[in-house]
What we know:
The protein is an alpha/beta fold. It has 28 helices and 10 strands. One of its GO terms (molecular function) is metal ion binding.
Amino acid sequence: MSYQALARKWRPRSFDQLVGQAPVRRALINALETGRIHPAYLFTGTRGVGKTTLARLLAKCLNCEQGVSAQPCGECEACREIEEGRFIDLIEVDAASRTKVEDTRELLDNVQYAPVRGRYKVYLIDEVHMLSGHSFNALLKTLEEPPPHVQFLLATTDPQKIPPTILSRCVQFGLKRIPETAIAEHLADVLEREGLTSEPRALTLLATAADGSLRDALSLLDQAVAYGGASVAEADVREMLGTIPRDAVYGMLRGLAAQDGAALLAAVAGLAEAAADFGAVLAELLGVLHRLAVQQVVPESRVDDDPELLELAAALAPEDVQLFYQIALLGRRDLPYAGDPRSGFEMIVLRMLAFRPQSGGPPQAARAGTGAAEVEAPAATRAAPAAREEAAPPRSSAERVAEMFAAEKPPARASARVRTTAEPPVADAAAGEDALVEANDDTPQMPQPARVAAPVEAADVDDDWAARIARMRLSGMAGQLANHCMLDGVQGDQYRLSIARSSESLLNDMSRQRLIEAISALEGRPMRVEFRLVDEIGDTPAAQQQRAAAARQAAAEQAIEDDEAVRAIRERFAAQVVPGSVRPRHDIDHNH
Ligand SMILES: [Zn+2]
């Protein structure tokens, strides 16, 4: 039995069998049924999306002996000959291999003659953008006054290269890349009709590798059948495509989620044993991280039904996923420079482990606890952040790493100070269980017993607040909100923050929620936050930062003003310093 390639064998024989391209299909069926057929159609789209398939289908519709219709019979001589590629009135030209003007002229000379057998003489010119300028001119002449029995079907992957004069005489159809799910479904359908079986995941892998091209998908399926026999198995397809076992990638991400360096390295060792290509592993890791991010941000998209992926999406913080993606992306660039691929890859995943943001919940607390074993139990969980109490918000990666190691040995002074903060309040505050309620305009004179009852002095709390904000590593709106607040006090599981009415716009559901989450993470337990709107606010961290920036700016301008060289230039050339062009050194460093 002679083997026929699946792509050829299962080429669509009717519009019903066409995969995807619904709008184009509808437009063509409509044109055929109403008899309003344009003399020239142009199909555009990347390779393998069905341009020539559609053109051949249209040729059958026009020449079927049963009459012009959207449902060619598929039985008559004309239909069969077109299917077998030997219909004399279907002239297929691959412009990529036929660009000389003589050839095209010869071709178009015959346009005037009536069709030999069919109703229409159909010219299918593939990769039409490859025609030479002269050939385009010859084509244009024909398109200007097309004989009634001639149908032009043009196809191209690059419509930009077709002259506008030609484009304006064609009805253009843009064919879309075929979605992975549609390709996978079609592959399953083909296998069923072939009497073969498959694992669903195997077909998804093939569909992904085909990258939107049905033709590529079918030819890959051909290879998979040749490779694995009667059943298309996931493992075989992975081996054939050189795809990395997803289990290994999941294993690494689980190791990262659990901060388990040993598990992480074990997963890498497993991959090395399987002689995996670490560049491909990194690509697969990026793919999984992308799906995780989509799943986390738009859960209803159901990007993947894989239960393991859903589990990871719940276990990893969204900002961790973003960070890992960034590290993997940079790692991909640098991997070729590593001594050997495996060590390069290990460094990349270890970097993910080391630079994981500190805002996470239980894992950090647990690690800090083991490092600070000599400290009393209640203080232990908070000892690590306390060690960085006076530190400015960290800027460089090196600082972040240094911090991580510093956190292992907290100085006793710092932990003692934190313990003071955590002491139960001396007096019970009036604020009850429902303290989360915000003060609004109706109650401007809200009493403040809390401030009196606060266990630490107000000035200390303010300093403390800026330091806490630094440790919470808030960004965006939540960071803005925190910086514009003053901490009035902490009592039990409640933070009391005040914010100026003029900054009220920063206080929305999302920023509030993120700040509450960050405070809870900082304290290592669920916290409540009361926001109080005030007309006048004290020296917020935002105000302090603004003042510091202004002072730096003034100092920088003064330094330029006092500079001997600048003064000399000004005097000699009657020059002046362009206002606003002076920037403090700190800002410049920051931007590089
Ligand atoms: Zn027919």
